[in-house]
From TrEMBL:
One of its GO terms (biological process) is maturation of LSU-rRNA from tricistronic rRNA transcript (SSU-rRNA, 5.8S rRNA, LSU-rRNA). Coiled coil: none annotated. GO terms for cellular component: cytosolic large ribosomal subunit. This is 60S ribosomal protein L35. The lineage of its organism: Eukaryota, Viridiplantae, Streptophyta, Embryophyta, Tracheophyta. It comes from the Eukaryota. One of its GO terms (molecular function) is structural constituent of ribosome.
Amino acid sequence: MARIKVHELRNKSKPDLLTQSKRLLVYKNKKYLPLDLSPKKFRAIRKRLTKHHASLTTDREKKKKEMYL
């Protein structure tokens, strides 16, 4: 129930929709999100390395780069 979709509105009661929208506002700038509020993406996208982790290099890689430049 990460984002409320149009076809889901028919099945939900009004209090359910209100509580979800309130919970989204409460957790908006928090470090961790409950799983039911987190964005529902493909598993591969969720498990992908962050930009920061992908850009990190080991000491050995740094030394190799310095040698051959």
